[in-house]
Amino acid sequence: MSVYQVSCPARTLILDEERRLLEEGGLRIEPTLWCTLEAEHGGLHLTLAQALKGGGGVPPSTLWLRWPEDAEHGPLRELLTLPSCPERFLAGTVEEEVCDLPKDHAGRHGFEFGPPLNDGDITPDWLL
Ligand SMILES: [Zn+2]
Ligand SMILES: [Zn+2]
Known about the structure:
The chain has 1 helix and 7 strands, in the order βαββββββ. By secondary structure, it is mainly beta. The chain has a domain at 11-82 and 114-121. Strands 3-4-5 form a 3-stranded antiparallel beta sheet, with no helix packed on it. It has a two-stranded antiparallel sheet with strand order 1-2. Strands 6-7 form a two-stranded antiparallel sheet. The longest helix has 7 residues, at 16-22. The protein starts with 10 loop residues before the first strand and ends in a 30-residue tail after the last strand. The structure holds zinc ion (ZN) (2 copies). One zinc ion (ZN) binds at residues 85, 87, 99, 101, 105, 109-110.
């Protein structure tokens, strides 16, 4: 693993039956999805699968896909709606950032680590 890799390197292939369930929502469905948790997190891998608009008294919600490391398409694999993580970085300021992960997620909050960086993103005065 590169020293710059900060998000989990796991990814999963979307199954046909999952694709059919996901086609209703607002996000384009990718054939594979990367885990959005911090690298070396515990528990199941997790990724945002779809944003559901709601309507008819149903609030908008987010649909997450989680799967175990050792059995990607095994019985523990699950599509489910989860509430958002309530944590805010610099809450109440113009710099406020939300954590884009579900409540009670493993690892650090989304604003505490970024997507993988490569050498081109590192400037000479970067302090690691
Ligand atoms: Zn993961
Ligand atoms: Zn969080």
